[in-house]
Amino acid sequence: MKITFDWLKDHLRTNLKEKNLLEQLTNIGLEVESVESLSAENKLFKVAKIIKVEKHPNADRLKVCDVNIGEKEFKKVVCGASNAKEGLITIYAPPGAIIPKTKTKLVVAKIRGVTSYGMLCSESELNLSDQSDGITELSMKYEKNIGKSYFVKSKSNLIDLSITPNRPDCLGVRGIARDLAASGFGKLINFEKKKINSNIKQTLKVKINKEREQGCTAFGSCLIRNVKNVESPKWLKDKLISVGQKPISAIVDITNYVMLDTNRPLHAYDADKIEKGIIVRNSRSGEEFTALDNKIYKLEKGMCVISDHKGVLGLGGIIGGTRSGTEFNTKNILLESAYFEPRSIRNTAKKLNLDTDAKFRFERGVDPLSIESGLEKASSLIQKICGGEISKIDIQKIKTYKNRIIKFNLNLFENIAGFKISSKQMTKILEDLGFKCKKDKKNLKLIVPSWRPDILQDIDIVEELVRISGYDKINIINPIKERTRSTLTQTQKLFHFLQRAVASKGYLEAITWSFADSNYNDYFKGKNKDIKIINPISSELGVLRNSIFSNLIMYIKKNLDRGFKDLSMFEIGPIFTGPNPGEQNTVICGLTAGKKSRLSWIEKERNVDVFDVKKDVIQTLVEAGYNSDKFFIDTQTPNYYHPGKSGRLFISNDKDKVAAFFGEIHPNILKGIDVKTESLVGFEIFLDNLKLPKKSLNDQKKNYLVSDYQKSERDFAFIINKDVKSQDLKKAISDIDQNLISNIKVFDVYEGENIPANQKSIAISVTIQSIEKTLNDNDLEKINRLIIETVEKKTGAKIRS
Amino acid sequence: MSDLKKIKEEFLLKLNQKLNLTDINQIKSNLFGKNGLISSQFKKIGSLAENERKKFASDLNITKDELQNLIDTKIKQIQDAEIIEKLEKEKIDITLPERTFVRGKIHPVSQTIDEISSIFSEIGFCVEEGPDVENEYNNFTALNTPDNHPARDMHDTFYLDEKKEKLLRTHTSPVQIRTMLKDKPPFKIIAPGRTYRSDSDQTHAPMFHQVEGLYIDKNVNMGHLKGCLNYFIKEFFEVKKIKMRFRPSHFPFTEPSAEVDIGYEIKDGKIIIGEGDKWLEILGCGMVHPNVLKNVKIDSTRFQGYAFGIGIDRLAMLKYGINDLRAFFECDYRWLNHFGFDPLDVPSNYRGLSR
Predict the structure, then answer these.
(1) In the prediction, which pLDDT does A395 show?
(2) CATH number of the domain to which A209 belongs
(3) A743 — contact with chain B (CB < 8 Å)?
(4) Residue B215: closest CA among chain A residues belongs to which residue?
(5) Residue A733 and which of A131, A260, A427, A663 are 20 to 30 A apart at CA?
(6) Is B343 in the A-facing interface, judged by CB distances under 8 Å?
(7) Who contacts A601 (Cβ-Cβ below 8 Å, separation ≥6)?
């Protein structure tokens, strides 16, 4: 909402300065977004006339215009607007001017080889409207102003307020003034009501159809005959321009003025263009009309339209139509002042993707009791400026408005606000805001003013009182430092631990979108169906990710393309398995690309491989408190891993839920998305599948059990079928006697010469130690034999002699 | 000259020549070996006459010690020389680079979440979570934002179905609803997490992070709210005093509602928090609307309290001088390295939030 201090002063008597005003506005919840000085910079924008238009020699879409700006010589301006034509009166900005919308400073510039001195501006570039198609078109009446500044000099700055959606009353200057006055900033000026004393009947029949979901509940109107629509007088034009509106004609300007002044939208019809009478009804499917923005709208069933006997004239409370619009030669007008239901307005505007000043106001709630006063104010102004005779006011309604009544318990204020004000103060504030108050012992009986649709219950009264008293009155009560429950749950602790554990292995933490490009996600979605976003920002962010890889691999690629060769990145966050709340899992996912060391004077170069990520996964889980002796690994991994170089890890033998996958990324994927690296390996740890470690850190520490008896290491080499897993071999050995076999280590794997085809040699070192005694040769020999026998029996291996 | 003296002189002479370890060992064995010259002399003692024996033995021992010491000294000298020579040879250019190491980093958003959790932990808040995909009811309706409410315009929402019943949560506030529905008051929680709006430009990202706060009990009023946020902001920015401004605003789910600004100034192109005459909006808050409490079946005549929502990314930007929101999610290796935190830098109360 744009206002000026000058305009406010129409409603507010005050000696205070603009600086105080800005502070006070913000203090009472009418946030000042920006303050713009209009006069200084805008002086440069001049009314100008296009004298000649030629095609640009080097560009089809551009034109070279000779522009009369009131100086002897015409200016050459290059312009891309399709509506630039000879004779058009428009607005010219010289080099040095700052374009209000973009805040860019114009310079003399060569555009495709032709020098352009300044620019012809569109309404949107001047912040006059959202109209950005083509340059501003001014009426021929401006011809006498050529060379003069378009904007009037104003002492008052343009103040842009951010009005919250609950305060439609402050979409009118008067509402803002009322709030200010209540807070002690000046005094609200009261006006005498201008009653229309007329004995002329309103002869155009208006009917509101009683239908289900009728969006219009009251329609007030009056006829003004024999007007002469003229250019607005200076005071009115200046006023509109001072808040960035473009004057059009007296009748339109007056309706705009009343709307901005009191938040009472009005609409003026050319009464002679209305066929027989007005019918307010629901639209039928497929009805069409051309709106004042020159666009044709095709309506769905059930939209609130103002029609005549021929068809739709306009969308009630949103936009009028061209068929019944007023023009300079309009003689008789019908002025409409109606009430439209916010819900209906909102639905229609949303469906048609339409946003107008009127819509913005009606969807937030216009004062239902302002129908008459709006008509009175506007029609008397029209009569004053355009002449004519005003008819009596006709009001059709299907619903009668009743003011809301609230019983307000005085104690509630202090309960919520934490400070006290007297009941006298409360009454004063509320009365200044337009409430009618009646006090009994504990309560205030309040009649809510009709312009405050946001006040529904007692808590809303508390807000009014705190707001106007000032939020600075709220005392700070310092919090007590006390913790009665633990801050994090076990699961949350695990999350934080794993996050930092993985980072400490050399991975950079990334955060990527929860959505993904389906081209990438398709590689990693496995059996999941696409979870599509209905209204994505772009097709590259069209689905919810089924895997973190979908995004991480893209960013690894981007970084590789930047020239980084050896990269490790991870992300911890959600992946999605379905479109419903809760169908998500928390995953920690890492990728490592390139070499472990590169160009080193001391180390051998080698590519990162699956055993690097295996180490990262196992170490991370062990650090988090899981026992690696119980881990079980097999080869069933999703298809985005290299089928021969990837693994699936379970926390325990019972293979309950997959704890992690790790491995090389499938070479086809690297090819498919063109990842240029020597090697790419990755892992995924599924947090929701990890059973929380049973023992707390505290419990883990309690049993300190070590053996000081002599230990001995024995080495074995077995010849075994290639496809037997070392994990099985180890398990066979450890199962023999877990009290004696304290460690098993695979230290060599060999295939090739001297080993039969399809077989391999595995060398294992076993540490044997008792916690009860020193083992003698006999004991060791027994264990030795047992190990060989068991392994041979269970795995088909043969000891290598 | 006695044999002893002869041996002594002969070997003193030999030992003073330039010798290597083998030579010395040879000498040593010539003297003290089983049949060495000195060893042989010892064997003579028994055959000597009583009167000569004492002196001879004494002389012999002195000579033996003398030679023995000399030999030991010589050996040590040679060994020392050898070690010095060896060390000299092994000398390397110690300025050559060490073996490569890689350093992981924690993302500034994660670090900031940990900082926030640590601060609120001190004053008794617990961390709650909720799903990223929400139903329309939890995200809007339960929060007193019915479908015709213009406040919905401020939330450009991503939808997952045509009926617009499933969506990506536009704020962390639905966690309030979930928490209150599953438990009984009092509630004292924060809920950090991902949030989404279909909005994307220089200052908006389609995904960002928020932390929700909720404190419901008997007698919680706006003074507590102000005190809590004042405490939080001071702790977070690690300053003793903070300029803070509460101003009225509107959120459908709180009444009264406020936005909180903090004072700042720009010095040498850097933003200084807590001083100056400029205001920066950093969060929204208010007293939980009775309609919200009603929706989660809490008696608003017995329980009341406050809620707040803070943009985490924005806080991180302010504290760590990051000026581009979109860079948080672009995963540029250089950016992550620069703005990331060492994994060992776990924010905690006793050692301070940051180094």
Answers:
(1) 93
(2) 3.50.40.10
(3) no
(4) A479
(5) A663
(6) yes
(7) B96, B97
For chain A, state the CA radius of gyration: 40
Nearest to B111 by CA among B331, B328, B274: B328
Interface of A with B in 15-34 (CB under 8 A): 26-29, 31
* pTM greater than the 0.90 cutoff: no
Q: What kind of fold does domain B108-339 have according to CATH? A: BirA Bifunctional Protein; domain 2 (3.30.930)
Q: In terms of domains, do A174 and A86 share one?
A: no
Length of chain A in residues, anyone?
Answer: 801
Look-up of token digits 């929101």: B325
- Quick one: pLDDT at residue A61? 86
Domain assignment present for A187: no
Are residues A731 and A750 located together in one domain of the fold? Answer: yes
Would the CB atoms of B131 and A581 count as touching at under 8 Å?
yes
Identify the closest residue of chain B to A582 by CA–CA distance.
Answer: B131
B264 to chain A, closest Cα gap in Å: 17
Q: From the CA of A450, how many Å to the nearest CA of chain B? A: 19
Kindly indicate the confidence band of residue B185, based on its pLDDT and cuts at 50, 70 and 90: very high
Gap between the Cα atoms of A759 and A512, Å rounded: 46
* The two structure tokens encoding residue A533: 């976003």
Q: Which long-range contacts (CB under 8 A, 24 or more apart) does B18-24 make?
A: B19/B74, B19/B78, B20/B78, B21/B75, B21/B78, B21/B79, B21/B82, B24/B71, B24/B74, B24/B75, B24/B78
- B68-86: pLDDT as tens digits: 898 898 889 888 988 999 9
Whether residues A374 and A413 share a domain: the answer is no
- Look up residue A395 and give its two tokens: 């009001």
Work out the minimum CA distance from B124 to partner chain A, whole angstroms. Answer: 4
Domain extent, residue A53, equals: 44-145
B window 88-127, beta carbon within 8 A of A: 96-97, 99-107, 109-110, 114, 117, 120-127
Is B350 touching A (CB cutoff 8 A)? no
Query: Looking at the complex, does the CB of residue A568 fall below 8 Å from at least one CB of chain B?
Result: yes
Classify A77 as helix, strand or coil: strand
Question: Rounded to a whole number, what is the distance in Å from the CA of B244 to chain A's nearest CA?
Answer: 10
Mean pLDDT check: name the lowest of A120-129, A292-301, A305-314.
Answer: A120-129
> Under an 8 A CB cutoff, do B222 and A508 touch?
no
Inter-chain residue contact A165 with B153, CB threshold 8 Å: yes
Q: How many CB atoms lie within 10 A of CB A798?
A: 15
Give the whole-angstrom CA distance, residue A360 versus residue A128.
17
Q: CA B343, CA A619: separation in Å to the nearest integer? A: 15
What are the percentages of helix, strand and coil residues in chain B, rounded to 5? Answer: 45, 25, 35
Residue in B closest to A341 by C-alpha = B148
Q: What is the pLDDT of residues A12-46, one digit of tens each?
A: 999 888 889 999 999 999 999 988 876 556 778 88
Please indicate, yes or no, whether residues A503 and A639 belong to a single structural domain of this protein. yes
Positive/negative CA dihedral, A384, A389, A392, A393: negative
pLDDT tens column, A370-405? 999 999 999 999 999 999 999 999 999 999 999 999
Is A162 an 8 Å CB contact of chain B? no
Residue A596 is assigned to a structural domain of this protein = yes
Which chain A residues are Cβ-neighbours of B107 within 8 angstroms? 509-511
Query: Is the CB of A600 less than 8 angstroms away from the CB of B100?
Result: yes
What tokens were used for A586? 């928390």
Measured between alpha carbons, how far is A302 from A296 in angstroms, rounded to an integer?
Answer: 18
**Interface confidence (ipTM) of the complex:** 0.89
- Using omega within 30 degrees of 0 as the cis cutoff, is the peptide bond preceding B186 cis? yes
Residues A650 and A505 in one domain: yes
A603 touches chain B (CB under 8 A): yes
- Per-domain boundaries in chain B: 3-90, 108-339
Of the residues A397, A422, A438, the one at which a domain ends: A397
Q: Are A173 and A112 found together in one domain? A: no
